[in-house]
């Protein structure tokens, strides 16, 4: 029997971001140096998961709010893009590789989550095909490098959850969110607009298409800032905005709701918004990105 830990390869390195550790380090440092630390220390962040050439600069605004001196464990909740999943799934790996350094999964927390009976196990293949968690690993490694020896991660693949399941997972994870040594990363891009995404909502009153998209996204972002899960659900039902991390966001909002019942004061603010391109006609397409942070008072 081999004692080697089961590792998830950095399968999107070399395509979605550079596989060179030194280049990656320089890139991340550059983007982080452009962002302000305004709401640190964050207890949770929402950040995008596209290729770094599209969203690396935007994501930095969320990562800049992390305080590595208080953070010991990072939960990463990403949506499932490739496999149908009606619950949440845990990784089969023990270590996640990045071009910077390897991140180890917190086996104790995994064992506790597993005991609840609420989780499935994703295969290593599913794990390596998925980019929604991986795109946060280099940024996590960079943000936490001064305390990397004390760091563990808890990757969770989030399926297409019903409202009641979002509440159940929110309730379960709220006790982890209550702990200042835990940080939650919610992986989500915002509006995917264009015929290739089968979504072409357009409010002419806003002017050009890209302005309509921005207005739609910012309406949703404003609702997320109120931290009310029901309002976010209603917004999605009304506009069907193609926010791919809507279920991870829903889980976070429900976890916050649970903590607020016991009087915990929190607020969420978005710090940056960007689009992959500015749509002006029906042939165009774009994906939107937003970065924000949750602070506990």
From TrEMBL:
Gene3D superfamilies: LigB-like (3.40.830.10). It holds the Pfam family Memo. InterPro entries: MEMO1_fam. It comes from the Eukaryota. Belongs to the MEMO1 family. NCBIfam families: AmmeMemoSam_B (TIGR04336). This is Protein MEMO1. It comes from Salmo trutta (Brown trout).
């Amino acid at each position: 029997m081999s004692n080697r830990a089961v590792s998830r390869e950095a399968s999107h390195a070399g395509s979605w971001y550079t596989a060179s550790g030194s280049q990656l380090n320089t890139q991340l440092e550059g983007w982080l140096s452009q962002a302000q630390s305004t709401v640190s220390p964050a207890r949770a962040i929402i950040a995008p998961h596209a290729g770094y050439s599209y969203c690396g600069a935007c994501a930095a605004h969320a990562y800049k709010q992390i305080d590595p001196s208080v953070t010991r464990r990072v939960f990463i909740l990403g949506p499932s893009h490739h496999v149908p999943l009606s619950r949440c799934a845990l990784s089969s790996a023990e270590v996640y590789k990045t071009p910077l350094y390897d991140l180890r999964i917190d086996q104790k927390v995994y064992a506790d989550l597993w005991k609840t009976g609420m989780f499935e196990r994703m295969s290593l293949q599913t794990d390596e095909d998925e980019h929604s968690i991986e795109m946060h690993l280099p940024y996590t490694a960079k943000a936490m490098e001064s305390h990397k020896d004390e760091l563990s991660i808890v990757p969770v693949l989030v399926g297409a959850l019903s409202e009641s399941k979002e509440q159940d997972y929110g309730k379960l994870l709220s006790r982890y969110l209550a702990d200042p040594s835990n940080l939650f990363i919610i992986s989500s891009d915002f509006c995917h607009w264009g015929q290739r995404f089968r979504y072409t909502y357009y409010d002419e009153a806003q002017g050009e298409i890209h302005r309509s998209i921005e207005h739609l996204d910012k309406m949703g972002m404003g609702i997320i800032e109120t931290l009310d899960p029901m309002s976010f659900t209603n917004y999605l039902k009304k506009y069907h905005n193609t926010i791919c991390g809507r279920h991870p966001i829903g889980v976070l909002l429900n976890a916050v709701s649970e903590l607020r019942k016991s009087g915990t004061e929190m607020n969420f603010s978005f710090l940056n918004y960007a689009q992959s391109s500015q749509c002006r006609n029906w042939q165009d397409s774009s994906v939107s990105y937003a970065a924000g942070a949750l602070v506990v008072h």
